[in-house]
Amino acid sequence: MNPINTPRLIEWAMGMANHVAQLSKDPSTQVGAVIFDEQRRFVSAGYNGFARGVNDTEERLHDRPTKYKFTLHAEKNAILFATAPLEGSTIVVTHPCCAQCAAQIIQSGIKHVIYPTPDSFFLDRWKDDLVLSEAQFAEAGVEVVEV
After folding, report:
1. Measured at the alpha carbon of residue 24, what is the angle toward residues 45 and 30, in degrees to the nearest 5?
2. Which of 40, 99, 104, 109 could disulfide-link 87, Cβ–Cβ 3.0 to 4.6 Å?
3. pLDDT digits over 76-108, tens only?
4. Alpha-carbon gap, residue 32 to 19, rounded angstroms
5. Contact 61/26 with Cβ under 8 angstroms?
6. 3-state DSSP call for residue 98?
7. Of 11, 38, 75, 146, which is the active-site residue?
8. pLDDT, tens digit, for every residue of 122-137?
9. From CA 4, how far away is CA 39, in angstroms rounded?
10. Furthest CA-CA distance within the chain
11. Where are the alpha helices (DSSP H) in 22-119?
């Protein structure tokens, strides 16, 4: 059962993810993710950004192809930074998950994903990826809650 399962808890957890997203230096999109175990204990957080020790210069951040190749997504960072096993946990993300992040979430043992319903701009740009993400989550038995 998803421990982040009431509107109040979802709002609280999404607020945490939004707060973490503010650490991203990406000039166009800041993404945050937080993970909770089955007892609602905080396990990890991550935001989109370059790998530790890689210079996030203005030039790199404003060159979209370079930025995309260098950037680790918030979900992946949260998984990498986890301080406890993730089996059965919940990840709350400020944006819908891409297909690669969906695969990593599934592989890590996370069973519940919460993110905002994508707006039309996001859907226009990432629709194909979102279809793949949703298919993976459904096939692997991962619960997705859009808020």
Report:
1. 95
2. 109
3. 999 999 999 999 999 999 999 999 999 999 999
4. 7
5. yes
6. coil
7. 75
8. 888 889 999 999 999 9
9. 9
10. 45
11. 58-62, 64-70, 74-80, 99-108
